[in-house]
Amino acid sequence: MPADPPIARLLISCPDGPGIVAAVSAFLFERGANIVTSDQHSSDPTGGRFFMRMAFALEGGEQAWAALERDFGEQVAGPRGMDWRLARVVGPRRVALLASREDHCLLDLLWRASRGELGAVVAVVISNHETTRAAVEAFGVPFVHVPVAPDTKAAAEQAMLEALVGARCDTVVLARYMQILSGDFLARAGAPVINIHHSFLPAFAGADPYRRALERGVKIIGATAHYVTEELDAGPIIEQDVARVSHRAGVDELTRMGADIERLVLSRAVRWHLEDRVLVDGNKTVVFT
Amino acid sequence: MPADPPIARLLISCPDGPGIVAAVSAFLFERGANIVTSDQHSSDPTGGRFFMRMAFALEGGEQAWAALERDFGEQVAGPRGMDWRLARVVGPRRVALLASREDHCLLDLLWRASRGELGAVVAVVISNHETTRAAVEAFGVPFVHVPVAPDTKAAAEQAMLEALVGARCDTVVLARYMQILSGDFLARAGAPVINIHHSFLPAFAGADPYRRALERGVKIIGATAHYVTEELDAGPIIEQDVARVSHRAGVDELTRMGADIERLVLSRAVRWHLEDRVLVDGNKTVVFT
Amino acid sequence: MPADPPIARLLISCPDGPGIVAAVSAFLFERGANIVTSDQHSSDPTGGRFFMRMAFALEGGEQAWAALERDFGEQVAGPRGMDWRLARVVGPRRVALLASREDHCLLDLLWRASRGELGAVVAVVISNHETTRAAVEAFGVPFVHVPVAPDTKAAAEQAMLEALVGARCDTVVLARYMQILSGDFLARAGAPVINIHHSFLPAFAGADPYRRALERGVKIIGATAHYVTEELDAGPIIEQDVARVSHRAGVDELTRMGADIERLVLSRAVRWHLEDRVLVDGNKTVVFT
Amino acid sequence: MPADPPIARLLISCPDGPGIVAAVSAFLFERGANIVTSDQHSSDPTGGRFFMRMAFALEGGEQAWAALERDFGEQVAGPRGMDWRLARVVGPRRVALLASREDHCLLDLLWRASRGELGAVVAVVISNHETTRAAVEAFGVPFVHVPVAPDTKAAAEQAMLEALVGARCDTVVLARYMQILSGDFLARAGAPVINIHHSFLPAFAGADPYRRALERGVKIIGATAHYVTEELDAGPIIEQDVARVSHRAGVDELTRMGADIERLVLSRAVRWHLEDRVLVDGNKTVVFT
Fold first, then answer.
1. Fewer Cβ close by (within 10 Å): the C or N end of chain D?
2. Taking each helix axis from N to C terminus, what angle separates B251-274 and B209-216, rounded to the nearest 10 degrees?
């Protein structure tokens, strides 16, 4: 899909019922908003949940926006019990990347951010290894080294949280970060956390998926980008993709081929998230692409 | 996408501008219509063309529908210069299949229709060869043999038109029909005509695409379903798909692999067309899947 | 890959080591065999296992073949501890299809066999339901109804074994056969058994995979053809393929889309098996396509 | 496929006939060569052309290799009229990258070379624009700026040839180099030249393929890596891949999506070429992956 003009996106989720589209679109039209794209989804027309994303432009300054937000809450969202969010595009989003030794996802996101593909800046890279420092700093991005050892994990997570806060990040991306984050960290991060898992989930959750894929003799490998929850590799899936493999490929070859899938899948998921195209529906996602 | 309940679909195309979604959805809401799915597309938010498909249910009988259709034209569509169509689902659509010797697309569509996948009945099969008669009649579908020779083409097309009219078909599908239809036939058919071309158009338009694909040494072959226009293989594309091939594949193997792509691509295109998901935009299509 | 001419295929698996290709190709060359295609694979050049498939033609009658087979065993295969098999193509292979209510895989294989795509005849269809009898018999294939109830399972399997033996089948294909076969049946069947599972294994092994895929919110669904072993859905995988799905698809839509993948995956696996392209390597397969 | 150990690859193409595999493998075996992988292809078993690639290790120093090469020519290749080449892996291959303003293919190849994926070093980057100098030099690779204007083309090509010779390159890759190279340049380059074209050839050869794809309304876009010949975009295709697009994508979006395909397709083609997996067969290629 094309990038939206720098405007606002209204995200709604609520019990389905008649008249929602009419109410929302009439409200926006009367306020002079110019709807650019609109997407809806109902999990079930009778008794299901309704999801909507509208991207629109609005003339007028801060006051107009504040009034629109207040009035929408009072007049439309409140009466219908909507979960909703008005995401104004007032500047690039700020993303933190967490990485370990592998650089393919990390560099790919840095490169895409630098050429404007993500509509976001990478505000900080945090890694438990020093290996990628030079490559990160070449993009002009601050690199924070937070080593993690079994007995320093709590302190390390505290240091990472401080780095996230200091960089004012609204999204955290695990670009092949190989440490498991605690539930406490996730709760305090104050931002959605997106992970890339190097398998086609739910197959091969956990460690060493390429080796296990080889042992099972699968003919296709994959990668999965998902929101991180406390349960490992079990959060809502944002995007997946796959590649065909033959009996000739060993673990090294699967790892090399997989790296290409991982960076594509993760970059799509991150871009869609940053463009407010992903709505969470329990443990699933609605993705308006 | 899921099949719609048996309801109506409103298809709109018009110059883009503010308030269209609000106007249409308010109109339908006030009439008691229950919108099930809604899709929009703007070819360009400033000065482009706007396309919309809304599927909705409506309580009430024929009169309610007639009033809704009349009022929509007068109150909404007319003032905005809309091209529009209200497609009510009052029974299965009626499709004619034209075929020659190859049976793979023909049988696949007959089988899908018979299990209810298309929301349509195959009202007649017309072929310039007798070879598939038994297989067609086993589905309980009338088979009409209209042989075509260079000097009998006009008469043959006349006979085919009569068969189409007799079967009251609203869609014509060329299931690997190997004769070129005249512009006169297309004009008089009174129904959209969908063709499957056995290449990834615009590559290898015209005759013998698999042989030419082999000679060019492509690594991927494809198939294209498109609306038929007078210019050969140049009409609006509805759907395409591809398959990877290796240097090992000769023409026979390409033809065999291609047959699998052809029947998938054609069946998707026909289903989307019959579900009113395809809107023509000049020589392109908007497909709301 | 192209179909082989009607000849013989030599399948070999043995510990890897120097000189195997030289020994085999020299043996065949000296006997006047004309090698048409040759494929090799080593699971590991140092200490791994070596797999080879050679398709070749040979002048001379039964005696020449018998001598070749005897001498190869004595002179080449024996000294090197080869597992090997000489598969002569002396007529179409004979396949049994087991089915239940779903007809998509069943009809697809019947249709492909009838047009010569499989190099095999379907010798018998056995089903625990009567629903597909007419469609099967229209292909001229015997239909055997063997109902299965919890307390008649052993007798049912006995009846099925008798039908297999009576039809002299060398391959058994479960074309969405929904009963679990006992280890005893598998042992006594005397032929490889190929199954299609309607998920991307190892994800969603067991019952109701499309519903579970929907609940997990995956973005891609798949199908897996594998040899049947006693452990459910755990045998060596022959082929897999996938299709992308969106949040719009419910279970019915996943099932419909999945049916298209299933029949493609199963038909490829069956064809490759019948062309002796699949060599089993523990719980994995080497597939020479 | 897995990377070969650092050994030698024997590439053969000759008229097909009996005994070739036996002769070659016996020759290598007798010399103590340990064949690691072996691939064959016959364009037609009767009267076609035969292609073979064998990767093997050999004990012994320079003298053993020299003797093997001389004897193979005299004893095996000469009598059978083989085109052949013994490619010893004695160090990384040396690649020149030609680029213009776009950096995605350029950076991707530099990154893959730096992590050892290509088995090659990028010996020089030549560009007609200065824009990517810093990024290139960050990889420690020499950057040569050769501006091209209509009236300086001959001089520019001369400067580029000198840079190629100075860098002792055995492969030239056009990583979205936007100037057309003369036949004279190609003849004098003394190395194969690989190009990435941003369409699914033969569709949309020439300029501005994404805009033309949009205008034609295709549902899938692609990229093609091919050897460069004098005829524009008509050389032997090495690799192609595609991505599905919707009616929502404008030219910018197609360009962004296409960039991801281009860099994957080009990197695969370059790697296969550098591993001697690509044999040219007239205007087609045999690719042993």
1. C
2. 120
